[in-house]
Design brief:
- The protein is an all-alpha fold.
- It has two domains: 1-31; 33-88, Dockerin domain (Type 1 dockerin domain, Orthogonal Bundle).
- The protein is 60% helix and 0% strand.
- It has three helices and no strands.
- The longest helix is centred in the first third of the chain and has 26 residues, at 2-27.
- The model is unreliable at 11-27 (pLDDT under 50).
- Bound molecules: calcium ion (2 copies).
Length: 88
C-alpha cells in the first residue's frame, strides 16, 4: 500500500510540474501577443484593455501588450493593435 501511495504522489508531482512548465511556455507564445485581456482571442476588447492599461500603468512592461515587440508598452502598441484589428 505504501508503494502505491509513493507512485501516486510521484505522478501527481510530475503532473503539477508539467502543467507549470506548459503555463510558462504558453506565456511566451508569440501568438498571444495582442491578447491583452488573456481570453485567448485578439479583438476589440483587447484594445479597450490596452487603452485602460496605458492610462493607469504607462511605461510598465507586459509582454502580451508589447504588440510591436520593442520592449515597452506604449501608444505605439495601441496604434499597431488598432491597425491589426482594422485589417482583420
Ligand atoms: Ca483577448
Ligand atoms: Ca511596444
Amino acid at each position: 500500500m505504501k508503494k502505491i501511495k509513493t507512485v501516486v504522489a510521484g505522478l501527481v508531482a510530475a503532473t503539477v510540474i508539467f502543467a507549470c512548465s506548459v503555463t510558462c511556455f504558453a506565456d511566451a507564445n508569440p501568438w498571444r501577443i495582442g491578447d491583452c485581456n488573456g481570453d485567448g482571442y485578439v479583438n476589440v476588447a483587447d484594445l479597450v484593455t490596452l487603452k485602460t492599461y496605458l492610462k493607469n500603468n504607462y511605461g510598465k512592461y507586459r509582454s502580451t501588450m508589447d504588440v510591436n515587440g520593442d520592449g515597452r508598452v506604449d501608444d505605439l502598441d495601441y496604434d499597431m493593435l488598432y491597425r491589426m484589428l482594422l485589417r482583420g
